[in-house]
Design a protein that fits this description.
250 residues, 4-stranded antiparallel sheet, 10 helices, 10 strands, 24% strand, EC 7.6.2.9, transport
């Protein structure tokens, strides 16, 4: 379990996060949802260890990670722009991090991930030859082969459209289920959060507005901000919400 206690952060004396408490169970997909500037990316970076918090505690499986460096936490992130190496082909990108591991995965384990994300036909391609969805799958595979304790995703669907977006969404769900991999996602899109996550943390101006399941957030919003933010933005996506949560919210 990942546990955050009273996590706070300021930049230039301006509060970005205030007293964030959060518990994420093993294998859960949790979205950090909020508007631009709400503090969600800062919170993701604090969990990763990229950003130092001003106060609070972070625990993983009862281990205090508050002062543990990023490289020693065992968490891995897939960035919004994928951060792939253009001079390497898809396969070389996937195995890039393994050369620094003390114990490399066997070839069978490596190809299990490659097959799972259906990248076999694309391994020799240059990054410039890959579609957006293929690049996302390469980035996911490169992270999975490192066997992270927690998978962090920064706006994983923002550069994708239509069928490709839905495909990646289903793959993220499958990864979390098959590998029992706790997954934390930053998104500004309520529809993505509601259709992808087991639970959603809604952040508004550095505070937790609500933490709950998609059903709870739709049917039992904690306050007017949650209700307005979720339902108004979903108004143009009526069909998806009808199937998920019933006619009165479509």
């Amino acid at each position: 379990m990942l546990k955050l206690e009273n996590v706070s952060k300021k930049y230039h004396n301006k509060s970005v996060l205030e007293n964030i408490d959060l518990e994420i169970q093993p294998g859960e997909i949790v979205s950090l949802l909020g508007q631009s500037g709400s503090g969600k990316t800062t919170l993701l970076n604090i969990i990763l260890g990229l950003t130092k918090m001003d106060s609070g505690k972070i625990y993983y499986e009862n281990e205090d990670l508050t002062n543990v460096k990023m490289k020693d936490r065992g968490f891995n992130i897939v960035f919004q722009d994928y951060a792939l190496f253009p001079h390497l082909n898809a396969y070389e990108n996937i195995v890039y991090g393994l050369k620094n591991k003390k114990s490399m995965d066997s070839k069978n384990e490596l190809h299990e991930y490659i097959d799972f994300l259906e990248l076999g036909p694309h391994l020799d391609k240059k990054i410039s030859q890959l579609s957006g969805g293929q690049k996302q799958r390469v980035a996911l595979t490169r992270t999975l082969v490192m066997k992270p304790r927690i998978l962090l995703l920064d706006e994983p669907l923002s550069a994708l459209d239509g069928v490709i977006k839905e495909s990646i969404k289903e793959r993220i769900k499958s990864i979390a289920k098959q590998f029992q991999l706790t997954t934390i996602i930053v998104t500004h899109d309520p529809e993505e959060a509601l259709t992808l996550s087991d639970k959603i943390l809604i952040i508004n101006q550095g505070h937790v507005s609500q933490f709950g399941t998609p059903h709870e957030i739709i049917h039992e919003p904690n306050n007017e901000f949650v209700k307005d933010f979720i339902l108004k933005q979903l108004h143009i996506k009526r069909q998806n919400i009808f199937h998920l949560f019933g006619e009165q919210y479509a």
